[in-house]
Write a structure and sequence with these properties.
The complex is a heterotrimer of chains A (756), B (290) and C (155). Chain A is built from 21 helices and 29 strands. Chain A is of the alpha+beta class and 756 residues long. In chain A, the strands form 7 sheets. In chain A, strands 3-5-1-12-9-10-11 form a 7-stranded mixed sheet, with helices on both faces. Chain A has a 6-stranded mixed sheet with strand order 7-15-14-13-8-29. A 4-stranded mixed sheet of chain A has the order 16-24-25-28, sandwiched between helices. Chain B is of the alpha+beta class and 290 residues long. Chain B has 3 domains: 46 residues, Uridine Diphospho-n-acetylenolpyruvylglucosamine Reductase, domain 2 (2-Layer Sandwich), CATH 3.30.43; 115 residues, Uridine Diphospho-n-acetylenolpyruvylglucosamine Reductase, domain 3 (2-Layer Sandwich); 110 residues, CO dehydrogenase flavoprotein, C-terminal domain (Enolase-like, domain 1, 2-Layer Sandwich). Chain B is built from 12 helices and 14 strands. In chain B, the strands form 4 sheets. In chain B, strands 4-5-10-6-7 form a 5-stranded antiparallel sheet. Chain B has a 4-stranded antiparallel sheet with strand order 11-12-13-14. A 3-stranded parallel sheet of chain B has the order 1-3-2, covered by helices on one side. In chain C, a hairpin with a 2-residue loop joins strand 1 and strand 2. Chain C is elongated and about 50 Å long. Chain C starts with 7 loop residues before the first strand and ends in a 5-residue tail after the last helix. The chains are: A alpha+beta (756), B alpha+beta (290), C alpha+beta (155). Chains in contact: A-B, A-C, B-C. Chains A and B meet through helix 3 and helix 21 of A and helix 12 of B.
């Protein structure tokens, strides 16, 4: 049901924007407390080694040092969301160069840094396993007990061999993608202190305060009520702060010393020890009939999780779920492995496993269209999922499916209609132009996993509302979106809505801010809260009037019904007079189905869809690819705030462009060589040209006002669209991302292209 | 990143005082000019950082003069000033072009030409331009002044003909003549700032449609910047044509010895040298033949 | 190896006020601003001059405070985001050019510098002048719009 709205759909300037732009917002890295200790880490010198001995005695005597901690100080030294395979402080072994062996707490930054140099760690180097294909071999040196396969699974529906037999065209390729680094501008950072109630309070950049809280209390074995986690405004996350980073160490230092502490990673530490997007190897054999129907997809997915599993098990599921694209395919066979290596740890990154498989699938589809002599968009439309379809995993799609609308928007776009003209336009003799398209799908919410979120709404004495939730403001604008949703749900002026976020001491558990789920979760929980508040008010009014009040609704800052109208201020007072709390809680359980065998969370009930068009220029003498224009089309359900929506999609497009063309970590036997922003290049303002955003509103019935998640969809189809545009321009298929100048140069040279 | 809380910094008020201090603390002080490279190097180094001689305050080393067909640039002159200077734009446009690509606006405002020269990165963007301009460096010490041609200044990877106690104070070169054209090129891995995979400068003197003199310098393809002498020879005495510029571009391979690093393989660097020379000469050919 | 701390006193003008601060002469201006003066509008994104988040004006010119030692600031004038004309920050906010916001102060200072040099920059000029400021959230589209909205503004 579509509802009329005042604030939802309106372009409202974000409430946090001006303070941030003036430099007044305090991020975790901006806080300096009195009597504060500086924390520095002693990290592994080897990608893989046995620890023979740790001697901290000299470090302890170093000037200004207050404490040095090792694994002996951590009561339960293993953590991890899916597998507890990661030590807080390494004890038996180090498994990658970001591993921390000891931490120092000192009076000053320099004293902490100098004391780290005084820690003696004796290592016995072990073989370094840096290639996931090597790591998978039975005789590979095991990085963990139980070998190097963190998870493997196989999921089949139908019979792919029969599908290939019936196919007119079959294409088979291997694709690779590099481990993209988040490169948020604020590195992992936090501080800690003991508050007036004796609670160890950790304030740090993160995405999930309750999960961070859980990791702290479970590793340090502290009573849950003795720890509080606060996540202030975060200087970027993109999934890279979904796992804990500084939190446990800060809690440890403050717990043991009783003093405030600060732990901020420098850029090199962040690139080495922060998580990454999984490097991938994806092999695909895909078949289609003469009339352009996809018939079979045989897929092998190998994701390099690095030294630890982190969120890898779920990432692998997302890869599996999305590797067939937004298409109906009757026969699939997917084998997937999550593999340990001594490389950097991989975990969540916007898209969560989908961009890698879509880089493969959307090139497969493109190639099939060319082989069958069909227009690439027409081919995609023929196979596009529709509401009511049975998806590849046997699940029926009963929620909104906007992929056809997205593809039609692409088909009608001038960039697509004029692609041959653009291709033949004259320019320098070594420049070639091309236009490419790619589609995207990704489930949002946690799929078949339990997924619940709560928000609290306090009706303030001044008649305003305070919304409290543990969603985190990582830049995406959730605070603004929640305020707009609340203003419409409670029919109140947005200026009267305050939002308190991400504090385990003050806000209920809205669960993790990831999987593009927070707007959907918080919005639906708010809906429940609005119903609960109305119920409460009806009860109060029933008591007050001595007769049953059945009808009551919010209107213009008032609660109105037949014969009454009370301002929010009056209602707040009434609740108090009746000895009732002015705060209600809304709890939302995401509808879900049972996971299919072999999976953790497949299928989702809710999916986002999208498509990207890319215009590229390829310099055949250098291999440099530039992108004069990107068109990002996304099925967003319903636009909540056009400004934040386009901002999310533009940002995702730019990150996708980086993933596609620029961002290449160089890892040499487990050692990362590109540890800063001059060697690991992210897009600058000169690399990102025109980006046009086209939102498609498919209206999701279950979503708040019809809205879906939007955080991730915009990144997924960028790299394959650019790859397909490169093909259109120079007729080579780049199967390895990033498609750096050197890689493209050799491909083009091999293809024998010459200057006209 | 480590803090340099333990070093001392000496800040002289005049060049004389700077040379005095440099003499007194021979070999113990590193010279801090703009600092845009030095500060990172010192903060990332494993070993203890040396004390610094901060010459950043010496405004007497900030100037651009056109003096008797010689252009003189004070060593502390920053790249923003160089790239915006009417003197440089008119008399050494190839340097103005190179200077603009050294880094971001923030870097251009601070990094000095002297610092870029002494820092001696083989990929430094100002160096190929200074090579083709036949720049001369003025080195001063407490006891005297010495001039050295830029090509003689580099003895190997980061090895300089610079004695302890000596300070680079000036860069000078002949103003470009009416019949000279120069172009700079740079291959970076993104459109925004990036360290050069290869860079280079070409300076041609053209008389009646024929190349009278050619100077080509290439960076990031050897331990020091190198002159592409075979390419130069291929051009001299010729009219620019597709055939000639292609041959000249390919001839650079005898002058370079690139290595593999995070920015590219040696093989790719070789190809880029050839292709950038080709693309740049192609554009110069159009300018000449117009 | 233990190195003992060296400290000296420095005078400079910061946002129009005379400042006297004791600091190690090898400290960067960024360290002095954030760690000693706790003036945290200037952000530390890389400490290597690659991201532009720490941009300040030194005698009116945009520089990286992470690549400027406090010793180089003696007697000079430093302007940080806190003292930049608010209309620049306001344009960023109104045009949705702020997401996580950590890069924004650096952009605001760099933009103020651009506008001090050029009243009416073109799209290409804006890109040239802001190429040293990295943003990971916005894709730069709205940043460009924000700066364009300020162009030609003489106020």
């Amino acid at each position: 049901m579509k509802q009329s709205t005042t604030w939802v759909g309106k372009e409202v300037v974000r409430r946090d924007a001006l303070e941030k732009a003036r430099g007044l917002t305090k991020y975790a890295s901006d806080m300096f407390l009195d009597n504060m200790l500086w924390v520095a880490a002693c990290r592994s010198k080897y990608p893989h080694a046995v620890i023979k001995r740790i001697d901290v005695s000299r470090a302890l005597k170093s000037p200004g040092v207050v404490a040095v901690f090792t694994h002996r100080d951590v009561p339960n030294n293993r953590y991890g969301v899916f597998v507890k395979d990661r030590p807080v402080l390494c004890d038996d072994r180090v498994r990658y160069i970001g591993d921390i062996v000891a931490i120092v707490a000192a009076e000053s930054k320099e004293e902490a840094e100098q004391a780290v140099e005084e820690i003696v760690v004796e290592y016995e180097p072990l073989p370094v396993v840096s290639d996931p294909l090597e790591a998978m071999k039975p005789d590979a040196f095991p990085i963990h007990e139980g070998g190097n396969i963190s998870r493997s699974t196989r999921i089949t529906f139908g019979n792919v061999e029969e599908g290939f037999k019936a196919s007119k065209a079959v294409v088979e390729n291997e694709y690779r993608t590099a481990p993209q680094i988040h490169m948020f501008l604020e590195t992992e950072a936090g501080f800690s202190y003991i508050d007036e109630k004796g609670v160890i309070t950790v304030v740090a950049g993160g995405q999930s305060p309750y999960r961070d809280h859980h990791e702290i209390v479970s590793t340090l074995q502290l009573p849950p009520e003795k720890v509080r986690v606060v996540i202030p405004h975060v200087g970027g996350a993109f999934g890279g702060k979904d796992d804990v980073s500084v939190q446990i160490y800060l809690a440890l230092v403050t717990w043991k010393t009783g003093r405030p502490a600060r732990f901020v990673w420098d850029r090199d530490e962040s690139t080495i020890a922060g998580t990454k997007r999984h490097a991938s190897i994806v092999r695909m054999k895909t078949g289609a009939s003469a009339d352009g129907k996809l018939l079979a997809n045989d897929v092998e997915i190998i994701y390099d999780t690095g030294a630890y599993t982190a969120l890898g098990h779920a990432v692998l599921d997302v890869a599996i779920e999305n590797c067939n694209g937004p298409y109906k395919i009757p026969n699939i066979d997917i084998k997937a492995w999550l593999v340990y290596t001594n490389n950097m740890v991989a975990s969540a990154f916007r898209g969560f496993g989908a961009p890698q498989v879509m880089f493969a699938m959307e090139q497969q589809v493109d190639q099939l269209a060319y082989e069958l002599g069909m227009d690439p968009i027409e081919f995609r439309l023929r196979n596009a999922l529709k509401r009511g379809d049975v998806m590849v995993f046997g699940n029926k799609l009963e929620t909104s499916v906007g992929i056809s609308q997205c593809l039609e928007a692409a088909q009608n776009h001038p960039l697509w209609r004029q692609k041959e003209t653009l291709k033949s336009e004259k320019s320098l003799p070594w420049i070639r132009r091309g236009v490419g398209v790619a589609a995207a799908i990704k489930g949002f919410t946690l799929g078949a996993l339990p997924d619940r979120g709560s928000v609290a709404v306090e009706l303030r004495r001044d008649g305003g509302l305070t919304v409290k939730g543990s969603f985190t403001e990582i830049g995406q604008g959730v605070v603004q979106a929640v305020a707009q949703l609340a203003a419409d749900l409670f029919k109140i002026d947005i200026e009267k809505v305050e939002v308190v976020f991400a504090d385990t001491g003050k806000t209920p558990d809205t669960s993790v801010t990831s999987a593009s789920r927070q707007l959907f979760l918080a919005g639906n929980a708010l809906k429940k809260a609005a119903e609960n508040l109305l119920n409460l008010i009806r009860e109060v009014l029933t008591t007050r009037y001595g007769q049953k009040v059945i009808e009551a609704r919010f209107e213009n800052g008032y609660v109105v019904g037949p014969g009454f109208s009370h301002s929010f201020e009056e209602v707040a007072q009434m609740l108090e007079e009746h000895g009732l709390s002015r705060e209600v809680v809304g709890v939302y359980d995401v509808p879900r189905v049972e996971p299919i065998p072999g999976s953790l969370e497949i299928p989702h009930l809710f999916y986002m869809f999208g498509a990207t068009l890319a215009l590229v220029e390829v310099n055949i003498l250098t291999g440099t690819v530039t992108v004069p224009k990107l068109v990002s089309i996304a099925d967003v359900g319903k636009v909540v705030n056009p400004q934040t929506l386009t901002g999310q999609l533009e940002g995702a497009a730019a990150q996708g462009l980086g993933f596609a063309l620029l961002e290449e970590p160089i890892i040499d036997k487990g050692i990362l060589k590109t540890t800063n922003l001059s060697t690991y290049l992210i897009p600058s303002i000169k690399d990102v040209n025109e980006i046009e955003v086209i939102p498609v509103e498919s209206f999701e019935d279950e979503g708040p006002f019809g809205a879906k998640g939007i955080g991730e969809i915009g990144i997924i189809s960028v790299a394959p669209a650019i790859a397909n545009a490169i093909y259109h321009a120079v007729r080579v298929r780049p199967k390895s991302a990033p498609m750096t100048p050197e890689k493209i140069y050799w491909l083009v040279k091999q293809a024998g292209l010459t200057v006209k | 990143m480590k803090s340099l809380s333990y070093i001392d910094v000496f800040t002289p008020r005049s060049l004389e005082e700077a040379l005095e201090l440099l003499d007194k603390h021979r070999g113990e002080l590193a010279v801090l000019a703009g600092g845009t490279d030095l500060i990172i190097q010192l903060r990332k180094a494993q070993q203890k950082a040396p004390n610094l001689l901060n010459i950043y305050m010496l405004d007497e080393l900030r100037y651009i003069k056109h003096d008797n067909e010689i252009i003189k640039i004070g060593a502390l002159t920053d790249f923003a000033t160089i790239t915006e200077s009417p003197i440089i734009q008119r008399h050494a446009p190839v340097l103005a072009e190179a200077a603009a690509t050294i880094g971001s606006v923030q870097i251009l405002n601070k990094a000095s030409i002297g610092g870029n020269i002494v820092n001696a990165s083989p990929a430094a963007d100002s160096l190929p331009a200074l090579y083709v301009l036949n720049a001369t460096l003025t080195l001063r010490s407490k006891t005297g002044t010495r001039k050295v041609a830029i090509e003689q200044f580099y003895k190997g990877y980061k090895k300089l003909d610079l004695q302890s106690g000596e300070l680079l104070t000036e860069v000078s070169f002949p103003a470009m003549k009416q019949n000279q054209i120069g172009m700079f090129f740079k291959h970076g891995l993104r459109q925004g700032d990036a360290i050069s995979v290869v860079n280079g400068a070409i300076l041609l003197e053209v008389l009646n449609g024929y190349v009278k003199d050619a100077r080509i310098a290439l960076g990031a393809v050897a331990p020091t910047v190198v002159r592409a002498t075979e390419s130069e020879k291929t051009l001299i005495g010729q009219r620019l044509s597709e055939d000639v510029i292609l041959k000249a571009a390919q001839a650079c391979l005898t002058s370079i010895s690139p290595i593999d690093d995070v920015r590219g393989s040696a093989a790719y660097r070789k190809e880029m040298c050839v292709n950038y020379l080709y693309m740049t000469l192609w554009q110069m050919m159009r300018m000449v033949n117009l | 190896m233990q190195y003992s701390r060296v400290e000296k006193e420095f005078f400079f003008r910061l946002n129009g006020e005379e400042v006297r601060v004791r600091a190690p002469p090898g400290y960067t201006l960024l360290e002095v601003l954030r760690h000693i003066l706790h003036l945290t509008g200037t952000k530390d994104g890389c400490s290597s001059g690659d991201c532009g988040a720490c941009t300040v004006l030194l005698d009116g010119r945009a520089v990286h405070s992470c690549l400027t030692l406090i010793s180089q600031v003696e007697g000079r004038e430093v302007t940080t985001v806190e003292a930049v004309d608010e209309k620049v920050a306001d344009a960023y906010a109104r045009h949705g050019a702020v997401q996580c916001g950590y890069c924004t102060p650096g952009f605001v200072v760099a933009t103020a510098y651009l506008l001090s040099k050029m009243h009416n920059p073109s799209d290409a000029e804006i890109r040239e002048w802001l190429r040293g400021n990295l943003c990971r959230c916005t894709g730069y589209v709205k940043i460009l719009k924000a700066v364009e909205s300020l162009a030609g503004d003489d106020g």
